[in-house]
User: Which sequence fits this backbone?
């Protein structure tokens, strides 16, 4: 995607949603770490349902360790892979207590040391909790980056690095939220909703998906046999 198109791409997303935010519910940096770690292979809606009551009472590493593994499992049992995730949350909470005085570090290397925290989770925490200009490449951003031509890459890291290089100011802080939300609600995996996409003319994806009614009419139209020699029915 050309530089001018990249600027226009982000400008339109920014105009439509000037202050995008994560859809995960949290009360402080610690609960954000927990929520993002739990969101792997799960929906934000599902994580929010599981953590809403939990975070009312448990909002520090100390309280999480005191809660204990079994009670934590009871709170998050509706989330996929909850057994492993619960063990990681207890372990990362203990590490925060032992190594960081119970505070979430503002450092990528330190965050990635925490059990269950990978590069994507670290990028989300750095961006949302500390205002860092990071690009947390999840399945939505990976798809949007490749499909639109904004940042093509074979791995999440490759897409992240290309986004970091291609994304100009003043769009860097909110870029990953705009792309996640665009992928979640418009540029969907199975059928992108190109007919209502505000950046479709800048996007490399072809063919554009027509509106549902147009698709229905096309599929219901009578089929005719065309003579390949004459081009006539």
Assistant:
């Amino acid at each position: 995607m050309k530089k001018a198109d990249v600027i226009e791409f982000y400008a339109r997303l920014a105009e439509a949603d000037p202050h995008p935010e994560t859809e995960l519910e949290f009360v402080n940096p610690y609960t954000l770490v927990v929520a993002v770690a739990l969101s792997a292979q799960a929906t934000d809606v599902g994580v929010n349902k599981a953590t809403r009551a939990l975070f009312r009472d448990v909002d520090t590493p100390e309280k999480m360790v005191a809660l204990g593994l079994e009670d934590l499992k009871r709170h998050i049992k509706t989330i996929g892979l909850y057994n492993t995730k619960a063990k990681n949350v207890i372990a990362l909470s203990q590490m925060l207590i032992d190594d960081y005085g119970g505070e979430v570090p503002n450092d990528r290397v330190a965050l990635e040391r925490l059990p269950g925290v990978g590069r994507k989770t670290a990028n989300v925490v750095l961006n949302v909790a500390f205002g860092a200009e990071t690009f947390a490449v999840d399945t939505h951003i990976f798809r949007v980056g490749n499909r639109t031509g904004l940042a093509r890459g074979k791995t999440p890291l490759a897409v992240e690095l290309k986004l970091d290089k291609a994304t100009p100011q003043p769009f860097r802080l909110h870029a990953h939220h705009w792309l996640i939300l665009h992928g979640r609600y418009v540029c969907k995996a199975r059928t992108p909703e190109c007919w209502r996409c505000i950046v479709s003319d800048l996007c490399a994806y072809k063919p554009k998906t027509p509106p549902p009614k147009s698709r229905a009419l096309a599929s219901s139209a009578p089929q005719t046999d065309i003579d390949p020699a004459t081009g006539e029915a």
